[in-house]
Amino acid sequence: MKTLQTLLGGLxxxxxxxxxxxxxxxxxxxxxxxxxxxxxxKQLIELACTxxxxxxxxxxxxxxxxxxxxxxxxxxxxxxxKTKWTVxxxxxxxxxxxxxxLLKRFAFIPHARLDDLMVSYAPxxxxxxxxxxxxxxxxxxxxxxxxxxxxxxxxxxxxxDAPLRILSDFKVEQEWALESGDMLYLPPHCxxxxxxxxxxxxxxIGFRTPAYQELAEQFLVYLQDxxxxxxMYADPDLATQSHPSEISPAMLEQVAQVIRQVRWxxxxxxxxxxxxxxxxx
Length: 281
Known about the structure:
Layout: H1 2-7, H2 13-19, E1 26-28, H3 41-48, E2 55-61, E3 64-69, E4 84-89, H4 97-104, E5 114-122, E6 136-141, E7 146-151, E8 174-178, E9 183-186, E10 191-196, E11 200-207, H5 212-224, H6 249-260, H7 266-276
Antiparallel strand pairs: 1-9, 2-3, 2-4, 4-5, 5-11, 6-9, 6-11, 7-8, 7-10
Helix pairs in contact: 5-7
């Protein structure tokens, strides 16, 4: 319990969920005292170069951002010169056993909401620009220092034609420099910008907020392998029609009757959620 209260800055789980979760940011100094990370920069880059790992490289030169996707080789990181850059590795919890222990600290949030553990590394000046996300995230500082700037602004206009979703008019309202063990919680749509003050690594524990459209689409995909509709279309009483391209009322009604027979219940929805929300990214 003491560990959990330290993680939440002295708040109980109930207080955090009531007052902050999905509502407003929370800065927690020394959320995990002594935490310096699970990987060093070299190990993270090695992981980013692994075939089955989802990773990105963001570079910034003379104010312009560029986005590069895996696969990467070590040479991609060998000569970046004066370019400011960041490497981001998704799903580290699927490749690093120690990450599972870190995520256990956040078990006060249902596992169904967990997205993944993303780890980023950036030398001084690196970042991905001011942006907002559609999920809850705990930003835990490992190696080094990162300055976080945040805003509750309603303006979400993005820079046109940029390779990343970067806000065109970011207005800083609060900012802090985080050191090893510090953590910042951000609810969905809170604009933020992280800038490395030295060689630094950030551990992002993300919790998904899937769109209803996404859930509905994926539920129908789930159903297609689990429904059984016998029979086939037949029209022994076919009549002539003046427009051959028209779908006749008789055809429409016959097919509609069959589709109306497709049923699902709450158990199907529960099974779908269990499967879909357990799939790795």
